[in-house]
Amino acid sequence: MPTATEHPVASGDGHRRREELKAVYEQAQGCTKCPQLAATRTTVVFGAGHADADLMFVGEAPGANEDQQGLPFVGHSGKLLDRLLAEIGMARGDVFVTNVLRCRPPGNRDPQPSEIDACQDYLLRQVELIEPRVICTLGNFATKLLRADITGITRLHGRAEVRTIGPRAVRLYPLFHPAAALYTPRMVETLREDFARIPELVALPEPPQPEPLEEVPEPEARPEPELAVPEPELAIEVAAAEREREQLGLF
């Protein structure tokens, strides 16, 4: 899995998380949850960048270039992303970049709801293991998925909010997808203005994290009550007394 040079973290915890992220990467390589995507893809585009990044970008789905190279955002929109990062003093190696889908939809069509649902566990696991402070959603699909809301990117771009994604609280920062700016040049300026806020968001303290869910212990199995079995001698005496009462007409 392509990653950049690691920055200082708690060594034991950081090593464990990177090993677990690598295991998720290897699992995703053989994924067949979406039969059509599995049949038409060249490779699984898991994501790339800094495995301990404070900043994560989540796009829509791989395109033709990404499908061939196995890396996200390597086409024209990727070049624009690199340029916007450079303008705020960052590089691709400082962040982690991934998508809602890890396989290219045929003909670059929109992701289908069933595909988004099938693939989101990989994204949630990436968020859990990388532990970003800020997640920038690029475009409608990532924004709607991670906000669990249908509000579109036009109303939300450039407005940060704290959201809980899986087990982790992050600052979610919706942005227009760079691909949209390729067709609407004036949107580059909007992206540039929104990107300018990213350094201050990353510099903020980490949002308070939710309490981990406590495991509820399994109830202890209660032993079955033992049925009282009369002593053999007592059983004989009881039977004899019953016969005697029968003979005396007591029943």
Structure commentary:
The structure is a single chain. The protein has helices at 11-29, 35-40, 64-69, 76-87, 113-130, 140-147, 153-156, 178-183, 186-195, 198-203, 232-247; strands at residues 48-49, 55-59, 96-99, 134-138, 161-165, 168-175. It has 251 residues and is α/β, with parallel strands linked by helices. The chain has a single domain (11-203), classed as Uracil-DNA glycosylase-like domain (Uracil-DNA Glycosylase, subunit E, 3-Layer(aba) Sandwich), CATH 3.40.470.10. The protein has a six-stranded mixed sheet. Residues 2-10 have low confidence and may be disordered.
- Unreliably modeled segments: 2-10
Mean pLDDT: 87
Distance between the termini: 87 Å
Estimate percent helicity.
40-55%
Could you name the CATH homologous superfamily?
Answer: Uracil-DNA glycosylase-like domain
Count the domains.
1
The total beta strand count reads 6
Strand content: 5-15%
Largest sheet, strands/sense/barrel: 6 strands, mixed
Number of helices: 11
Order of helices and strands: HHEEHHEHEHHEEHHHH
What CATH architecture label applies? 3-Layer(aba) Sandwich
The order of strands across the largest sheet is 1-3-2-4-6-5
Shape: globular
Tell me the radius of gyration.
30 Å
Return the CATH class: Alpha Beta
Find the structural class using helix and strand composition: alpha/beta
In the CATH hierarchy, the third-tier topology is known as Uracil-DNA Glycosylase, subunit E
